[in-house]
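Consider the following assembly input.
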Amino acid sequence: MALVMGALAAGESVTRAAVAAEVGLTRATVSTLVDELLAAGLVEEQGAQRPGTVGRPGTVLALTESGPAGIGAEIGVDHLAACAVDLRGRVRVRAERPAANRGRGADAVLAELAALTGDVIAQAAAAGLTPVRTTVAVPGLIGPDHGTVLRAPNLGWEDVPLAAAFGGQDLDTAVENEANLGALAELWLGGHDGRLTDFVHVSAEIGIGAALVVEGRLFRGARGFAGELGHVPVRPEGPRCSCGATGCLETYAGEEALLRAAGVTTGRGAALKAAAVAGDPSALRALEEAGAALGIALSGAVNLLDPQAVVVGGPLADLAPWLLPGVRRELAVRVTDRRWRAQDVLISRLGHDGVLRGAAYSSVRTVLDDPAAWIRNLTDQAADPASGTGS
Amino acid sequence: MALVMGALAAGESVTRAAVAAEVGLTRATVSTLVDELLAAGLVEEQGAQRPGTVGRPGTVLALTESGPAGIGAEIGVDHLAACAVDLRGRVRVRAERPAANRGRGADAVLAELAALTGDVIAQAAAAGLTPVRTTVAVPGLIGPDHGTVLRAPNLGWEDVPLAAAFGGQDLDTAVENEANLGALAELWLGGHDGRLTDFVHVSAEIGIGAALVVEGRLFRGARGFAGELGHVPVRPEGPRCSCGATGCLETYAGEEALLRAAGVTTGRGAALKAAAVAGDPSALRALEEAGAALGIALSGAVNLLDPQAVVVGGPLADLAPWLLPGVRRELAVRVTDRRWRAQDVLISRLGHDGVLRGAAYSSVRTVLDDPAAWIRNLTDQAADPASGTGS
């Protein structure tokens, strides 16, 4: 059933025959599985295939828009957001509000986020969706249980049992690092039709967020700390970094360093972008130099990992027109053993919403990955309505 | 059967009961499989288990020393070598000779290597072993078919169809990059009891060879070019590198740079080591600086990949006493998000033989990984002796 759901998630205008060809099962087996998914309301029929195809036209199948919804929530340094996506990955409900979260205390932040998320869950339910799980994106280091924030320096958090504290929603809660979710969003929703499976994803809010996707999976490293591009040395004798070392990428291309170099004192990325659009020489020079530093660090990553591409996403994508020349120049010179082309650096199409959509879609993927568990749960609820989860 | 062979390869004094516990099969199934492996001569009984264990003592099983042999061959810049290892990974035959291979031409090099390897194969057969395959280690970039050397700059080779040219041995031949084989040797034969599965392996002959092992497998990257530590930028404004970029690790810690900085004009690593042992200040300073550069590049790799350890192997291990202080100092300062300890940098116990043993063991692993194919081949040969492979 997961294979069938996966084939429907990946394709458009898919028939039973096409699913069978895709997943390597017999037409009869696929029909049986599809019947179960239709009965459970996870899949729907959309009428006959377009004429012009060979043979008897099949019925086009699609994932439902009215079944499970994945909930995503995001804790930024100066905003909170939540959204619900359906099985197709489309955003159905979205809420966002500014919030000064730095040093505010986890309790207050989580209470406000829980209220915002509760509204989104209620609206999703009112729209006929069944929320299945909440994934919270945090700019910090997450424990291996995916429930605890070990450390989020930009929020001032240490050892926050987020999933437990976030309760009261009747939904399971998972916590994940925002850079990882940005990369997964690119993998799942970036519009690459499953062809982009090995890449380095770079984004930035305060620090430099990066994550590695290898063979279509997040690459976490032996202890879950992989992807720390921000502390790759660019110039070992360079400026002191907040991590204690010197010359890390963050000291050249982190937001704080970038704003200081550009002489932008109020506002953040948006103010820097405005200065660049206006042709301010300090802003242009700062972005050029940050782009070169990013390219130097990425050259090391590409030489080590040999990914298909580097993807620039998140807030950093807004600054891409000014950063990318430096990034591409350094990669062209420094990547050995393969011809690195300018087009191997991609700009994400997901914009600022990547992390939030990645969080919500990772929630709904629990149903895509195990539809049988969802169906069992439906059956159990029908037998004993009080025991169910969901709203 | 592969699971049983794997359990025997990993453990000592293993009984049928221990194999069953290890691989999660019933005792009866394991006994049946062991009987087939005993009949095929891949496994042997070594008498009763030591007293002191609980319950009825079992019979200790071991991989045979007299069955298949893996053949390894190595093309260095100034030497050729070949060896045979048995299923236990022990070197049974070994031959080596000096050879000035740089710019000598692939035909001459391969003819000499084929003669050397032929002697090793003949001696292995005379010792009652059955050679199964030859793996040739080359300091260069290997094509995805593992038959062609795409580029080996230190030999002056381009597009050499090595596996085809190396024929006439009656054995299949595979070609692999020497740095990859060094890392695999560490994984398989490094004495880590299967606990070291995620590491960066650094060795060096002329360039800096490195390879990544992730979850117990070689990490090759999207196009097979992963592990290029030698061209990770250390100081982007540094010396011009042979690759065309500037400030790559190789310009600080590659053999040529190191010998020049140390003022060693004749001899290679051994001469440098002698100078260091004698306390020559230039040699000590050169090694200290190369160690620091290696540490800077490795910090980037560790921050990106979060391996369990970094292993220094190959000829580089000889220089470890002088290189490691700088390596460890830079890693201690620059690795973020986890406490990096001095003991997370290991020195390989395999010494200079790592690459060659890795090549030979990767040959014999074809039997460990698929004993059924070996047994089928034996049966076919018995039925039609003329059709068999092996000598």
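Chain A touches chain B at residues 141, 197-198, 212, 214, 219-229, 231-237, 243-245, 248, 296-297, 299-301, 303-308, 330, 333-338 (CB under 8 Å). Ask yourself how this observation constrains the way the partners meet.
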